[in-house]
Amino acid sequence: MFNRLVPAEDSIKVEDFLSSAISQGKLSEKLDNHLLSSLVEASTVANKARLLSVSSPHAASWLSMPPLVAIGLDTSGDAQCALCPEKSLDPLGHHATTCKRGGVVVYRHNRLRDIVAESCRRAHLSVHLEVGHNLTPDHSNTRPADILIPHWCMGKPAALDLSVTSPLNPLTLLEAGVTAGAAAKATEERKLKANTGKCADLGWVCVPVVAESYGAWGLTARDFFSKLGSRLATSLGKSKSVVIHELYGRMSMNLVRANATAILSRSVPPPEPQ
């Protein structure tokens, strides 16, 4: 496999490999260098300049750096949240990405909601935002649909209930440490228990769309996005795999961006130099 991926001058005979001290790291380096060269060669001039710059020595050193007090990113456990000083900033970002003070959690939710709604419209689906409040006398204070799709499946409207949860939540931490997506699954189950009856009263189907703060999506969400991807592919004249990749990419980028904003907004600014 290795010899098929690298130039002839870098190929290695099996007997030479077995009798030499060539490490797996050296082989990976040769392969990485060849793949980078191939990528650069096939790129535009602007992309060549970008690729050569970001692949230069020390250009990606920031990836290996822990949070630094010098730039206001102390999450050692001793630093306090700038918006709620009674809370500490943990190294894994759990508090910062779940804290409701400052509005970032609401912004993150609404941004993801808007991306999903826009994608539905691009698939020629009618959507309504924040629906359900005061529609039934028994549930006057509920709003089970962040996004309502009047015509979704089997002639029934779909009420999308979008939320972001953390796998570090103490209620799901033990299971999340064993099973990927456990936090999203628990939130899906909680949403279904709370809203299925309310939606049934209105003739809707409850569809919890749950993301974890680190980027994972629940099974119900992935099933919905797969069906939406099929409609988008037809509408846009693209392959389903391409539109699904683009959809997850947009949501992931906005999720990470909101998380970064949450962490930065809670970091106490470093002291001014004397």
Question: Helix and strand layout, with pairings?
Answer:
Layout: H1 2-5, H2 14-19, H3 24-41, H4 45-54, H5 94-98, H6 104-122, E1 128-131, E2 145-153, E3 156-165, H7 173-176, H8 182-202, E4 205-212, H9 219-236, H10 240-266
Parallel strand pairs: 3-4
Antiparallel strand pairs: 1-2, 2-3
Protein described:
This protein has 10 helices and 4 strands, in the order H-H-H-H-H-H-E-E-E-H-H-E-H-H. It has 274 residues and is α+β, with helices and mostly antiparallel strands. A hairpin with a 2-residue loop joins strand 2 and strand 3. Helix 3 runs antiparallel to helix 4, helix 6 packs antiparallel against helix 10 and helix 9 crosses helix 10. The longest helix is centred in the C-terminal third of the chain and has 27 residues. The N and C termini lie far apart (59 Å). The relative contact order is 0.12. The model has no long low-confidence stretch (mean pLDDT 80).
Q: Enumerate the strands of the largest sheet in spatial order, edge to edge or round the barrel.
A: 1-2-3-4
Q: Describe the largest sheet.
A: 4 strands, mixed
Overall geometry comes to globular
From the N-terminal CA to the C-terminal CA, the straight-line distance is 59 Å
Assembly type of the chains comes to single chain
Strand content: 5-15%
* SS summary, helix count: 10
**Helix content class:** 40-55%
The total beta strand count reads: 4
In round numbers, the mean pLDDT is: 80
- SSE ordering: HHHHHHEEEHHEHH
Unreliable spans: none
Counting helices, strands and paired strands, the structural category is alpha+beta
Radius of gyration: 24 Å
